[in-house]
Predict the structure.
Amino acid sequence: MKSGMTAVMFSSGPVIMLLAALWAWQAAPRLTVDALRPDVLSWSMRLAAVAVAASAQACIVLFVCRRVYRPGLFDRVLQLSAVLVVAVSLVAAAALALAGQ
């Protein structure tokens, strides 16, 4: 019971992060209308949304799956891939944000 309650509590944060990432992806063109290069800034915002979604996935694997299932190699590989996606998308988002200014 305690493990299930902990999983529910720790899974609500990543769900909110995923909802924010989906909203940012969808709202990117509307939020970058006044920029000099709105298409570039829109893709920058979308890459930041991908970074938020990947970090939410890493949090789900770290907090929820390890509480419910036995940790193994697959969990580590999934976390490492999520961290790499976060790193690459944040660097690309920063580069596009600078290019779109």
